[in-house]
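Tutorial, part two.
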Amino acid sequence: MTAKIPERRQGVPTVVPLLFAIGFLVLFVFASVSGVTTVKETTVETSIRLPALFFSLSSASILFIPIALVSICCAIFAMLKGQRNVAMMFSFVTFASFLAFILLFQNESVNATLYGRLSSQLKDLGVKFKKRDVGAVISSFDPMTYLMLACAGIAFVLLMPQWKSETARRGLKKDLLPYAYIGPHLLFFIVFFITPAVYGIYAAFTKWDLFNEPVFVGFDNFKTMLFDSGNTYYRQLRNGLWNTIKFVIYSVPFCIAVPLTLAVALNTKCRGNKFFQALYYFPSLLSITTVTLSWRYMFSPDYGLANKFFGSTANWFTPPYSWIVIVAVTVWWCTGGTMVIYQSALASIPRDQYEAASVDGAGPWAEFVHVTIPGMRYPMMYTFVMSVVAQFNIYGQPLMLTGFNNQEANAVLLMYIQENAVKKQVAGMSAAMALILGLFIMVVSFMQLRLMKANSPD
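Running the prediction step on this input gives:
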């Protein structure tokens, strides 16, 4: 009986497409785009390297650049791991996304980035004009840009398997089928998470008004917020961050205790428990705007149900009552989702543990402390960390309930971030505030996880 000789995989060595993929990244550093326009018989021209264009934050077509960069990095990683089919797929995504960027960018009649630089040159030359006087900005890419496109295309072609081989087709299907499921999610993750995160971090080190091209200023924004005590942003950072921390301290215990109480009560399978479960979960389906405006009506000092029903004259939107209202609204809104998680955790605790505790003479409270809580340790750890992260991002409730009234007693940091970025158009400073808030959340979450891991049994 003749042994079957395994089919030898044909194609060029992986190192060749790997060099082309690396060449794509190297050429990206040196490639550039140029623009030219003529206004009132005066012609001006400018040139921008692609890395600078990537951070210009001015054109929707530029969003294809991070997709191409992330994809080519994934292709390089896949080639280093010996996964040729996966590398081929990411090389094709790189080629397609970069081609889309080139075509869409060139089709923009008046590109914002190129126009900003060209208009500065025209003003320096003493030409007086308005934007409508600019008929078009003609953009063109240098040869290195097209070499980048060629590198991605060649890498894709060299990694293609032998289609006539049944073994190659089966391997291709096996390797790429998982990406058919995660592909859309991965695309949205790159576009709506990685890209804004990179742009946000970069914007924190710039002076930017959302309209013109950001100007890199290094750590000036952070020096102003952290050390310049006479500056408005110094006061805003401290007041906003302290109010945010106070809200987290006030709300998180209730965001854990109230859903846990409801979950334990519903776990008794009382009559109508499904109705009450749906009733408690319903607020989490509503938008924060709907929830906040409804509760604002309830606590209105003029016609609100709270004052009319109890005969009170309190103004619930001034300290110290304002924090009570904000926390109550938040807990009412957030309870449903956490309650469902706790119900699932309670259902997974074996009933024989409760029976054994009952035989040992444990009462309801002892069963709750020694059986229920240990059995829900990991779901509670998860909800605790997520609740802290969510409440650090508090924004809608204080904005619509109190705003900047009461001498900004309830103004949280995200309110200052939005106010400075949109209304005052100091987006660079707002991005720096957001970065500080993000770092603070990361540190707090890391400390939570370390503390819980240290206290959990092996």
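The domain at 222-455 is CATH 1.10.3720.10 (MetI-like fold). In part three we will examine how such features are distributed along the chain.
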